Amino acid sequence: MSAPRRISILGATGSVGLATLDLVSRAPEGAYRIIALTANRNAADLAKLARRHGAQFAAVADPAAGAALEEALSGSGVRCGAGPEAIIEAAAMDAGWVMAAIVGAAGLRPAMAAIETGAVIALANKECLVCAGDLFMQAAGRRGAAVLPVDSEHNAVFQALNAGQKGHVRRIVLTASGGPFLNWPLERMRLARVEDALAHPVWSMGDKISIDSATMMNKGLEVIEACRLFDLSPAQVDVVVHPQSIIHGMVEYQDGSLIAQMGSPDMRIPIAAALAWPERMPTPAARLDLAAVGRLDFMAPDPERFPALDLARAALEAGEGATAALNAANEVAVEAFLNERIGLLDICAAVADALETAEAEETLPKRFSGFDQVFDVDARARRLAMAAIARRESQRG
Amino acid sequence: MSAPRRISILGATGSVGLATLDLVSRAPEGAYRIIALTANRNAADLAKLARRHGAQFAAVADPAAGAALEEALSGSGVRCGAGPEAIIEAAAMDAGWVMAAIVGAAGLRPAMAAIETGAVIALANKECLVCAGDLFMQAAGRRGAAVLPVDSEHNAVFQALNAGQKGHVRRIVLTASGGPFLNWPLERMRLARVEDALAHPVWSMGDKISIDSATMMNKGLEVIEACRLFDLSPAQVDVVVHPQSIIHGMVEYQDGSLIAQMGSPDMRIPIAAALAWPERMPTPAARLDLAAVGRLDFMAPDPERFPALDLARAALEAGEGATAALNAANEVAVEAFLNERIGLLDICAAVADALETAEAEETLPKRFSGFDQVFDVDARARRLAMAAIARRESQRG
Lengths: 397, 397
Fold this sequence. Notes:
The structure is a homodimer of 397-residue chains.
Chain A: E1 5-10, H1 15-26, E2 32-39, H2 43-53, E3 57-60, H3 66-72, E4 79-82, H4 84-91, E5 97-100, H5 108-116, E6 120-123, H6 127-143, E7 147-149, H7 152-161, E8 169-176, H8 186-190, H9 194-198, H10 207-215, H11 217-230, E9 237-241, E10 247-253, E11 258-262, H12 268-276, H13 290-293, E12 295-297, H14 308-318, H15 320-338, H16 344-361, H17 371-396
Parallel strand pairs in A: 1-2, 1-5, 2-3, 3-4, 5-6, 6-7, 8-9
Antiparallel strand pairs in A: 8-10, 10-11
Helix pairs in contact in A: 1-12, 2-3, 4-5, 5-6, 6-11, 6-15, 7-12, 10-15, 11-14, 14-15, 15-16, 15-17, 16-17
């Protein structure tokens, strides 16, 4: 029997972290050894997971949750930590495989710390690529760290790329479910409520990503990710709306063959593909029965009702500063929508406003030289988005 | 620049042969060197192709066509041959890549001669695998000859298998267009005319394969082929009806990922995949635009209206003798249908009759020991099918 694979999970209490641990639980005894688990502030759940899986180290990002974690783990033998530096410490431990599933820009430094160890990185954090893709991929290249995407679309493309060689790729296609507003006319979308936007037809996800899916900003961010992850030009990354979300992604080769990865909408499939890579492992995901599914639909995205895609492509053409600003402004605008301060269509409008101002200020570098610059652009874009939101709020009255 | 790839095409004047030469014509000057071209009896077309591509050797299977070929090639510098032995000679020439596209059992010995040279074999001849799959694959294994399927379904599976490892395959899925009678009720199918059966909705093919597609015997033969080519158990090969024929084949891995190959219905795509293998080459095939296609449908095959699939699976379980007899009896029955001697539904009924009698005679070996045995079973099954057809003809009045 081979030695256990040493794995750490950054963001263990979120849906991706829990799905990863679910697969670990189902694997043969001794296949995995859990090194570190981290959470934002959910000390109770993190402590339970750390005990159940015999983790070496558990850390919460929020210093205020440190005492609760320590108490919950007392006598368990699991070492504890709290605060951003504890998360970095967890990421830098000696694991061969690290799931980077911390949501948002907070995931950047921990993911980079994991990269620096040379571990295989299963990447569920979009911001690493959207905000600092080149820094990130360069570091991975330097350390020989494999970066395996866990997003179902990118994981699909990653799998399909194994059926050929990079030099023979014509383009890739990411599928988009179209979200809950796929068939809503523009006027109705204007009045969409938060609960309408959270009612995703296929995937059950967190609030932020559900809203991104409803505006299709999620797909825009994924186009940016794909270009950086797979080293493709923006023109090589297409999007097709596919409401059933059965085909997750495709690669078109120069002979006209499209290789697609399909599967039930169950995150355990792409996570398993990353966890077992370059092997595969069984999962409890429902088997795909195409005859039972009956039909798969495809349509072009509508740029009028879903301007986020074009916004993302424009940012991609403009450079790394613009994509980081896009991401930051969008986070702020989504939050404002969730708090019912602005309407659904205001999200993209506010992001566009913020980007326009930032571009006029000439504060968006074509390429980032380091993380500090990333965080500066991020902070400035947030302020600009807040101002844009405030203007829209006052107009709305 | 690398040395030209030395290629031969057995069955050069058929649709697969012509499509292969079309790709060769579009390739950069000097990429390919044509060694041998063969045809059944179409000396005029063969001579034109041999001159155009500067073949070393051209051969017709029909000795009666030899003189015409010689005349048409006089002064060209292309050496000529006629008769079955000339085809074997062509197959055994020193080519690194051989397209085996001779239709029917006549293709067996030439394909085996090509295998014996250790060349890469692009296999478009079903009979090699349906009638003598194990002999064939064993010889290929012994000689280290790669066998690349050219059938769009098997080529799709071959491509999708590159995205994983054989040991992680759960099953494969072949798609079936369903043919022209997909939505005909049984009673109407009983009265189907030859022209109805030849009107295939997607692919433009020869008469024999069009009829096989209409009865779905084609898919039954493909299930047999797939088991032998990919070394799978019959339970690992599923069929799903997919009228648009956009997805050609799929591989399901144990994690729940299905890897599919899709493309426009253009034979040049799978041929190019075999011709350029393990690289890829550009083709002029129409690019697949899924948004323009709009939808893909899937349904389970109907065993009542299309009994050929179950017939083929039963033969596969029975052994090599049964699959060879199935193929031979089907050829005879299709010919009788094309000659309007029997109805569409009589094809499978006659094949079932012939197989039943052959099984009762205990003349169907579980495994073949050599080609002579294959040809004996083939000849006997043809006689039994003729008798079954005669009985049905007399009943029909």
